[in-house]
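MODEL INPUT / OUTPUT PAIR
PAIR INDEX: 1
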Amino acid sequence: MSSTLAKHDPVTLPRAREPRGWRWAAVLVAVLALHWVAGEWFERHRDTLAPDSTTRAPVQVALLTPQRIERKPASEAQRPAPATRASKPHAAAEHVLSAIRPDAAPKPAQTTAAAVPASGAAAANAPAASDAHAGNAQAAERSAGAKFSVPPSGELNYDTFYNGVQNQPGTIHWSSDGQTYEMVVAVPLPFVGTFSYSSHGRIDAFGLAPEQYIEKRGRRPEDVTIFNHATKQIAFTRTPATLALPDAAQDRFSVVMQLASLVRGDPDTYRPGVTRQFYVADNDSGQVWPIETIGDETVRTRGGFVTARHFMRLPRSDGDKRRIDVWLAPSLGWLPVRILQTEPNGTQFELLWRGKLAEPGTADAQDVQGTEDANSTVGPENSANSPVEFTHEKP
């Protein structure tokens, strides 16, 4: 019986495998869709994800506008030192010295009285009064205006970064003799070539006065901005439009050294919250840049840590998301130790000091930091590249 039932049991056949390709395709589509949604969300909330330390600026405590810089009369530098006087000075030399040293006044007064009639004594004392008045005027002239000191010249070397990825080293050539200046910035970028920015001009009553700014990005033709101080006009090769040339106008890179010269001249003025306005011309337009002092921070370079003062360009208008941050280091003569530019889409270009952490012109700056950094040493090529204290001549 059991054998009969076993013969009539239905035979179980293996099921044919169903195709599963469509399942994998559905999973792939779902993953791609999730990635797209996540990317869109991240792009819209990029600003909210940024660290507070990089976006928050101190409350503005003072606003500085362009003004004339402190002037040092040429006559002050031309006055002879007492140690170099002749053994028998004549009356005119003694008279000049009496204006500098009040304790020497009786001697020239007696000499003058013996040489002229008594009725002419008042006339003899007139030059002394005139010199005293001129001295007071010169003292007032020295005290007026912003203090300004040009940074030391040198070939400055920087590590360059594009969105955090290190590229080939960049350079800033900076030189000034106190009357003229030249600045050339070279930043190599992969696949597109070297971006170069050059500015040269003179130093006038308001500091650096660019005469020509040239911008060349990779293989593209160069754009030139001309500052015509005779006609008070700014002209461009990129556009036929012209702009009025205001006093103390800068280009995109001379403004860094203009700021450095002002801070170098009077560091205590630039405390957190102090904002200074600069008129800056680009390759086709011009705008006022408000640059605010953020405070002293520690910057890490390949040579070690260095204290630097952080400055940030505030938004120029509503919706302006482009940022420029500059760190100036007092131990480097207030030269820029770091420059960071952030584009509206989040792209970042960065220059970070490369080489010895010493001011150009010093013995430490001329030392070579190992064989790998032999080309990164900063220092002057000749004695003319020593720190320059600005002495102004009448415009």
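PAIR INDEX: 2
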Amino acid sequence: MITITMPSSKGTAISRVSNVMSPSSYDTKGQTLAFDARVDSFFPLDHSKVIHLNLRVKDKILRAIVKASAVAKVTWDTSQQLTAESIVRVTGHFAQHICDDEVRGNTAYATIYVSALDVIAWASADLPLSSSHPKKMLSHVDLEERLSNRILDVRYAASGAIFKLHSGMCQLVVEFLCSNNFHWIHTPRIITATIPGDNEYFHLPYFGKDAWLAQSSQHHKQMALSMDMQRVFEIGPVFRAEVKSRKSMRHVTEFTVLDIAMAFYDDYHEVVEMIESMLVFIFHELQRRPQYQKLIEVVQQMYPDVRPFRVGLNECGKVPRISFLEAKRILRDEIGLESDDHKNFTEQEEAALGQHFRVSPHRGKTDIFTIDQYPASLRQFNSQPNPDAPGFSNTWDTIVGGREICSGSQRIHSYRDLCDAMRAGVCGPPLDPDAEQWQPYLNAFRAGMPPHGGCGLGINRLLQSFLGLDDVREATLFPRDVNRLRP
């Protein structure tokens, strides 16, 4: 706790609370304090001149008692007119510490007797999801209603903790990558080239020309590598016209992606290991650092099905890794599901593999593993074919909590090979490398491109999978899908 001692109008020292009060504040019994808070709920005691308030100070709850006999008339009148969610400035003194008392997922930890109270900002009396409607508890409210009232929803401790963890996850990403000599770049979201046959681009009229919103920053990342930047990353929004976002719990039309690209020396597995190491670092630090541990505990209180995340490493201390064909064999032989070697994994198959790796001792009891060597027909045109395994490519997916959260590949770096791959159309319609729209991209390869690889990783889905949330929109502050453009 940080306090600043200020003289009051009567000359008495008042400690102004400028941060959330911690347990060390319990020895301040009788000390006069001033702080700002939100009114969580309030109720008068029957037939008495006493009002009880539940006040939220960040993620903590203070129980405040206003006595008509102890405050000025203006304070008493104001207390009687309070509305839930209003912001108040309170002066008073601590009376006692309260243990094991829950208010809307927040722990009430202290009682304060009020000596003065002013309203900083009034809230309307008819707000949805407010504490004045006891049945409108976070765990009992339909997700669509919560999303439509996102501002109020995120004021709940558990919902707010999710987005503080989202912030923490991004900070850990930056910490790890910058410590490994990556450069943080920013690339455009308005592009002029799309892949024929891909109908998930949003068209954007652009001053009499055609443009589209980017699905990833992959091509611009590769251009940056051709500039000899060696290792680059970006965190930003991407856009995908996902029709299935109408019903899917893992797809939205705008989401936050971590894009990574790096040159390697010997083998593309250098890229795979870098990304796996980053994920292990993030998961370990989220569960080790006290500020994140507390947020996870708050989420677990409101979502009792959320389980601890397991990071099981193999005998070499690395994330378990299997081939595409081995994953298909496990589905058929060990899990008992029919699965086609020529088709990508369904959501159900990914979930089954995730559960298998989580509970199987010989698989490491882990919530994270990588599937390597996908068929070339399932990946992008610029993915490097495996010269030792015709029909397969140097590509991978990382599965977290039973969901694919990261797709990556070694990219073709030879200009001639890339043009041949575009014409061949192994994974889609053939592309014309002589078309004008491809020239800015191909110029980076004409100028000499180092061997490299990279991936795109959905931050929202990563957080969803880490916490075990059912719907990715719970890990998206203002989600966009087929049905939602507001708030």
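PAIR 2 NOTE: The CA atoms of residues 333 and 366 lie 20 Å apart.
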